[in-house]
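Quick illustration for those who missed Monday's session on complexes.
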Amino acid sequence: MDLRLLNRRREKLAKQLKEKEIAIIFAASEPAYPNYFLQNNNFLYLAGLEIPNAVLILSKEKEKHICMLFIERGIPEQEVWEGKKLTVKDAKQISGIEKILYLDEFDRIISLALLNKTKCFVNGILTSLNTSLNKQQNFIKQVRDRFPKLQFDDISEIILPLRTIKEKWEIKQLQRAIDITGDGIKCIIEKAKPGMMEYELEALLLYKARKNGIKHLAFKPIIASGINAATLHYEKNNSKIRKNDLVLLDVGVSHNNYSADISRTFPVSGKFSQRQKAIYKEVLDINKSIIKMIKPGVGLIDLNKKTVELITDSLLRLKLIKNKEDYKKYYMHNVSHHLGMDAHDIGKRDSILKAGNIITVEPGIYISEEKIGIRIEDDILVTKDGYKNLSENIHKEIEELEK
Ligand SMILES: [Mn+2]
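Prediction with manganese (II) ion bound:
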């Protein structure tokens, strides 16, 4: 990764800090087997390092910004088992951070640093009451006893304006994630046959992903045939696909920690029935109309409102409802969310679009009594004067899917 990019991000974040404010960003901990290590995205965004347990500190003193990184010290007996820890020199080279210390000095230094502070931004403090305290929350608990006047806030407050506007490099990573996901989808559509299990299609996606050097998917893939597609977050992928089923795919790979999020729906037999085609056509038209609305200044709320309006008209045309309010029976989610390092990326539900945002557009109609669920989801970059559909190469036209 370009060091200038990382430096610029840290500078931008520090600019958001006022005098006497400090940001403390914790890397993720190492998970227990069989889970694999997934770096905290705010830490990765600012430090560019894939190491567990590190801590990054940013503060501002007299208009000058101060950046310090704490990393684990390698213990030879442990390194025999786990491999070498990153050295200070390597960490410097990857992150571009000048001041790097070992974690055993963190408590002493942070105690001094907090003495004259009024506010402290920490990542990952917004979790639900019923989960056990994470590392950050335990840290806050300790600090509160010593510095009762210090205020805490989640880092998302100040990192959101940065992470929601994608840099050129980020758009490139995401485009690659989308293209590889498209490869997987194409392979699935070509190879799918009635009688196959949904997980066989999942395996095709995984194969294409790994073959392209992808470390992991962005989220648990949804491969839902027939009535399963009417369950919005169906993740079992363990049913046999029947002859006349539509198959809904909601999948995405993560490339360099940027997540694609694409949905496509296709007939496993290679041919839509008249009814399936009629419903598909409605969803496809809505997908296209909503994408066309995208430009700076438009709100996610506007997109949601328009989607509900269009879906309601569709449902009336399809004779599924008689009263407009009943649309909720067949469409029950939002049409868009921000996309980036996380598949559901940082970004507010009521945000107004700006150039550089990347969002999904994913209308759907779900009719369990007809065993049909259709969702068509594209990933869209907001440009200065409109939009660019980053997933436009992934087939969604009826003729393309039937071919
Ligand atoms: Mn999505």
